[in-house]
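Note to self: keep these together.
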Amino acid sequence: MTVNDDSFTNWKHREEIAESMIPMIGKLHRERDVTVLLHSRSLVNKSVVSILKTHRFARQIAGAELSVTETLPFLETLTTLDLGPSQIDIGMLAATYKADDRGLSVAEFTAEAVAGATGGDKIERREGRDVVLYGFGRIGRLVARLLIEKAGSGNGLRLRAIVVRGGGDQDIVKRASLLRRDSIHGQFQGTITIDEDSSTIVANGNAIKVIYADDPASVDYTAYGIKDAILIDNTGKWRDREGLSKHLRPGIDKVVLTAPGKGDVPNIVHGVNHDTIKPDERILSCASCTTNAIVPPLKAMDDEFGVRRGHVETVHSFTNDQNLLDNYHKSERRGRSAPLNMVITETGAASAVAKALPDLKARITGSSIRVPVPDVSIAILNLQMARETTREEVLDHLREVSLTSPLKRQIDFTTAPDAVSSDFIGSRHASIVDAGATKVEGDNAILYLWYDNEFGYSCQVIRVVQHVSGVEYPTYPAPAV
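Structure:
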């Protein structure tokens, strides 16, 4: 047999194994509310090839490809356990099992590692929590996709309604079409139908009421059977407590803003300060996409090396706030054509760091340049640290953080030598460390952090909503602290 034949036979064997994993992953998710992960990447509703590619990705960060032959025994064991709602990372199970020298079987090791999700310790499945989207623009539609995707078990977040201003004839048809097809993020994964008579969009079986209103004060959500809901305001029209309080109508319990909050509105970066949210807090902000991109790496660097001062320069994709062609704009430069120019503008991300990381004593400054790409940005984080270090030490630390720490859902890591912005469209992490571009000299480190400012940020929003709704389930094996 030739090398080519041998490689192809091996590929077909791995395909067969990945195929056998799909019903096990689906059944765990559907019947027990268990999300199977591989190095923080969900395997729910993934194709055979996607499962194999996710396994291969481990080579970039762990140095060796992870095979489905290694993870299958852990998945098979999970199907035999009395599991409650949880997230279980079979990549981490395989990695920690390799490092364990006690001679346990896979079944024994797995049962021990996920003990908190079994038997008397497991969390009981909870009733779903209603969610309302106020606004249906770029972030609103991506958040909708994520909510629909995560509704598989029926016990998590339920997107019940979207609130928009009336747009004339066939308004609901056009909005459903924008949800169905996206020029950047591709086709919606599933089916979408509409009922114009009842103003309802049905996406993968989820009935979503379209409510037309020009003012939050005009909506009584209980009239639509909505109760105790979390409302996600993605319009950015109101950013202080007084304005956002307009949403606290019958049927709405909490308001989450997808823009930086002003005044005393808490700015939350999931993974960093989400555990500071008070149970009785009814209004909070998910800060900005750039704040979410820089705060987790800042925390990781400060925890290990100490940060004395820093500057962030964001090279940011253009947004709907800019003009396609030169035209009047309230900002001096944003009126100039977005797809034809690099546009110097301001960023509030640096000043927002203090709200999300109050223990960081370093002064962080920032500026931004909008560039002619439609999605994915890069933050260049220039840090003076409290001690000297090496490039190898910094990269080893950030690689480990991306794999095993509580920040592993926020920080990703790539060693791809030819990485460019479009490679990170659809990334679910808040930011991705580009190892090849990292520079370290003495006590100075310069990090290049890619981030999908649309989808990655939307994932962070969903994590915050899951946390405040009580459906953010624990992850096993538990991340190293």
